[in-house]
Amino acid sequence: MSTGLTPEEWTALALSARVAVTSLAMAFVPGVLLGAFLARRSFPGKVLAEALVHAPLVLPPVVVGYALLLVLGRNGFVGRRLYEAGLQVAFTFEAAVLAATVMGFPLLVRSVRLAVELVDQRLEEAAATLGASPLRVLLTVTLPLAAPGILTGSVLAFARSLGEFGATITFAGNVAGETRTLPLALFSALQVPGREDAALRLAAISVALSLAALMLSELFARKLSRRLGR
Amino acid sequence: MITFELDVRRGDFRLAASAELSSTFTGVWGPSGSGKSTLLAALAGLVPPERARIVVDDEVLANTDERIVLPPHRRGIGVVFQDGRLFPHLSVRGNLVYGARAGSASIALGFDEMVELLALGPLLDRKPLELSGGERQRVALGRALLAATRLLLLDEPLSALDREMRGQILPYLSRVRERVDVPVLYVSHDLSEILQLTDQLLLMRGGETVENGSLLELVRAGHVLHGELDNVLELEVEEQDEEAGLSILRMTPSTAIAGAFVPSPLGARLHVGLRPEDVMLAREHVSAISARNQVAGSVSGLIEEGRRVLAVVDCGIELFVEVSPSAVAELDLVPGREVVCLFKANALRYLDAPLRTGSR
To answer: Could you give the domains of chain B?
Structure first.
């Protein structure tokens, strides 16, 4: 069993990191705003909206990938127009990012929502009497006080993106260097007899990355909480 | 000048309040549950009204008939809440400057002067969690003062503090009262506390505003129940007799009275409470009596309430004295009658702890 990673495995690791970072970057602002919105506002159809946002948590990932394919695939009702305009989404790096984003998004929204619900609304009232507009209250009181939850949610979404498999392979395929992320590389290795050592290495890396992310986020969240006096 | 008419429903509770207030410092007084806090919340725009008209110095902050309801952040109304509500993630300095605006209540008072006035200097870099209850309320007061441009509301700001702490904050409130340019509404269920700051009252009962005016006007109109009434006097320490256990306090230019010894420097001004039921009336000075104080005055009013009578005695300042109807008859108490008020030195209650000067 060789100690180092093969270039192919490095590529998969780097690709996974790129996918996870990009999808978190895309999901962060909408996820935080949506989480805060769901925590603080009620509107008709809220239950349905929440169910839709959170659906990827409970649906089989293959179904999510298939749904993305139906919409954005070459024959999908959006994808067809994009394809005619010279843009292909499915089976590209962008597709891998999109699949990871959709799968990680509800984890972020849910964490933010729970954290914002815990923020004392009386502090928001106090801020309003001090002349702060609702947007300023959100940015200077609500979100800073919800920071531990936002951080936790981001890490969960990031970890989910790193490990996303079902939606990715369905919507983005398994293209080396393009969409073959860590779990897909692991899956591919398992398909070939005699590559158990590679599979084992990739599995170990996955475990290490996920645990590291969780522990780091826990440490940071604790530090933040202490600063906020909880 | 503050004018408001408010109709607010919160569950089963209904607030129907209206008043026209011309004094710059008004105490809103009533028992718990009488709607004082709801009134303040409605003025600040924190609870939606069924109907509201709020005009402060000719500026319409709300008029539901014309579909005007300014949101809280555009009202310029600062609030000091019971529980302070400091932002835990910001330092004291961060809290103070959060809402600081040009043209605020402290228009004559910049940030530095506010810090000086409320003795906040040593606290500036601390976090709210590291402060005592009294320090927190001082910061909350400074924060609201730096933000309020039209009106300042204080919602039982001392109720979360113990007695000693209250005594330490009240002098700061008095200082603020003298320096601030915007009108203040001060809510409390403790009449003595309000009377240390103002005698202008807005009376509330059962979710309604009853009447506003000076304490004397309200008492004359029969609004203040005897058991709740208190005489609050501001007296100057004139002489100390520690051996006899007495402090001599100047009440009026011609009268000094004796209270239990209090370790305050000569010349200090103290708020002292004296309950109407702790004062006796006599027709003339009494010799050989244990009560240390005999203050001459004349009856300026008699207010009957049930089986008790409240006599208002003008001794240079007006004192409320509770007497029984039979005593009224026996002493022939009528307006203009010369009487002597008798009370023990121990009947005087010191309401404020001496203001600490310098660093702690």
So the answer is: 2-224 (3.40.50.300), 231-350 (2.40.50.100)
